[in-house]
Every structure is written in structure tokens, then in C-alpha cells.
Design brief:
alpha/beta; 34% helix; single chain; binds inosine 5'-triphosphate
Length: 197
């Protein structure tokens, strides 16, 4: 059995990937290898950030490793919030508790989009894998529209304002099971799994 580190402490993401790769790979978290650093993500693309995290683990801990980075890209905003998705409101001058972060990020985006007719957007994930001395990338995209008000209670982040192509409900209304089958992350993970298997 091979050991791979997933450079994340997001329990939900870890559980999901372990369920898929469990029989063939031992997937360790950052905590499992004693990495307590908040690994810097200073790149200007998802790919750069994912590689930065995977490289950090390889260089400091020696394990083969994969890492992901994701976010929302809005066409009318030239791809914003992009790599700044998690801290979009802060970058636009707002201060807040971490509990309100998702809500205020969405408010900032909706306000910028108020007069905008072009509502096209996509969620994007890039996974960088360092495996047996080589680097591989796996991308996942889901296209959709930014609606004008928040709808639904499920998911996280920008889910209440994102309606994926082919559906009349937002990611937050569709429920986690369906979302996790069609999401950007699911698509990137599916490619990673196909490669590893
Ligand atoms: P890590 O510790 O794994 O980095 P994170 O919360 O930063 O966790 P991502 O890098 O995957 O997760 O995503 C960055 C931001 O992009 C996230 O905080 C959300 O605002 C947004 N985002 C990413 N995927 C999303 C999804 O499926 N639904 C809604 N928003 C999402």
C-alpha cells in the first residue's frame, strides 16, 4: 500500500478522498504528518497555489503528496474573485467574524454584479500531485450563473448564489449528494483517482 499526503486539514475533503482511494492508498492529512504550518498560498492561479502546497509537503516531509485549490470565477468581473474567493470581502475593505465570512463575500459579489446582465460564472478546482518524482495536474470546472439573491441552506461558500448549468436550483438548494457528484471538485478528484488507479 502506498502512502500519499493530502495537503489539507479540511476534514470533509479528507473523508471524501479516503472513501474513494482507501483500498489502494493510505491518505494522510497534514495533521497526521505533524505539519502545523499554515502553508502559504501566494500564487495568482489555482495551479500555482496547489503546487505551492504540494511542494511544501514534499520538501519538508518527503512524502508524495497532492493539494487542491479552488474558487469562483465570474466572467463579468474578469475572473474575480478567483484565487481570492475565501477572502474577497476582506480584500474589499470589510472586517468580519469568521462565521459571517461566506455571507459577506456573497454580498460583496452581488453588489458588484448589481447592474450586470452577463451572469456567467464557473467554479474551478486544480489538484497538483507530486508522485514518484513527477508533477501532474487535474482540473475540474462547473459552469453556471450567478443569481440575484441567495437561495438554499446547503453547501458552503458561494453555493447559495451559484446555479449550475442544466439546473434550476442553486448548489445550496440541490443538496450535498448531488452537488458532490457534479461539482468542480468532484470532477478534478475523479481525474486524480483515474490516474492513481
Ligand atoms: P483549504 O483549507 O482546503 O484550502 P478552503 O476553504 O480554502 O480550504 P478552497 O481552497 O477549496 O477551500 O476554496 C476557496 C474558497 O472558494 C472557499 O472558501 C469558498 O469561498 C470558495 N469555494 C470553493 N469551492 C466552493 C464550493 O464548492 N462551493 C462554494 N464555494 C466554494
Amino acid at each position: 500500500m502506498k502512502t500519499l499526503v493530502f495537503a489539507s486539514n479540511n476534514a470533509h475533503k479528507l473523508e471524501e478522498i479516503r472513501a474513494i482511494l482507501g483500498k489502494d492508498f493510505e491518505v494522510k492529512s497534514l495533521k497526521d504528518i505533524g505539519c502545523e504550518t499554515d502553508i502559504p498560498e501566494t500564487g495568482s492561479t489555482f495551479r500555482e497555489n496547489a503546487l505551492q502546497k504540494a511542494t511544501y509537503v514534499k520538501e519538508h516531509f518527503g512524502f508524495d503528496c497532492f493539494a487542491d485549490d479552488s474558487g469562483l470565477q465570474v466572467e463579468a468581473l474578469n475572473g474575480e474573485p478567483g484565487v481570492y474567493s475565501a477572502r474577497y470581502a476582506t480584500m474589499n475593505g470589510h472586517t468580519m467574524d469568521s462565521g459571517e465570512k461566506d455571507d459577506i463575500n456573497m454580498d460583496v459579489l452581488l453588489q458588484k454584479m448589481e447592474k450586470e446582465e452577463n451572469r456567467k460564472a464557473c467554479f474551478r478546482t486544480c489538484i497538483a500531485l507530486i508522485y514518484e518524482g513527477e508533477t501532474h495536474y487535474f482540473d475540474g470546472v462547473v459552469n453556471g450563473l450567478i443569481i440575484r439573491e441567495k437561495r438554499g441552506e446547503g453547501g458552503f461558500g458561494y453555493d447559495p448564489i451559484f446555479m449550475p448549468e442544466g439546473y434550476e436550483q442553486t448548489f445550496a438548494e440541490l443538496g450535498n449528494e448531488l452537488k458532490n457528484n457534479i461539482s468542480h471538485r468532484a470532477r478534478a478528484v475523479a481525474q486524480l483517482v483515474a490516474f492513481l488507479k
